[in-house]
Amino acid sequence: xxxxxxxxxxxxxxxxxxxxxxxxxxxxxxxxxxxxxVGEIIAYEISKTLPWQEVEIQTPLGIHNSSVLKxxxxxxxxxxxxxxxxxxMLNYFDKADNAxxxxxxxxxxxxxxxxxxxxxxxxxxDGRILIxxxxxxxxxxxxxxxxxxxxxxxxxxxxxIATAIACSVGIDFVQREIGNEVKIWCGDIDDELTAKGYIVxxxxxxxxxSFGIKAQS
Length: 217
What we know:
Elements: E1 2-4, H1 11-20, H2 22-25, H3 28-47, E2 52-59, E3 62-69, E4 74-78, H4 83-92, E5 97-107, E6 113-121, E7 129-133, E8 136-137, H5 141-151, E9 158-167, H6 168-178, E10 183-190, E11 192-193, E12 199-200, H7 206-211
Parallel strand pairs: 1-10, 4-5, 4-7, 7-9, 8-9, 9-10
Antiparallel strand pairs: 2-3, 5-6, 11-12
């Protein structure tokens, strides 16, 4: 299942355009906040699909039958670039359990890279709803490795991926490797990757734009 939130114009389209804009990217706080906003909207859209139950709520003047989430999801993110998008989702799923994964591209001198996954911290996952946020779904390699590692910790009932911009190449890879049961929620979709695995036109390196350029040994 694939949901592109930019098919129909909304504020998401405005925020994605600002994320892409090199003149606006110089403002790191605004860049992080726009990722956070996209995360909030995706969280809201996902919430419409989640199981709910009716409960009796005592108000000062009586009883109200309210529809509420049946269970809280597990929110996971890939460090470090995923933190602003994750925070947006946590703003809405404010009672959710959280998981953190350090999956990153370990580059070789020739420009190729492997995905290195060195850290995983997560709550029990069996039968849970798992939402993984990563701002850029490019090749899909880090997401696939993350999902495989998390499924070794438990068997989620549902897996959702939340991303600001996805590449159709990466979407196809994730669906091929993980299966169609994964639901991918995108702020927008681009169709091209560079030889180094960056999305075109994309927005650049979301981690560097959020937190500064990193030195990698």
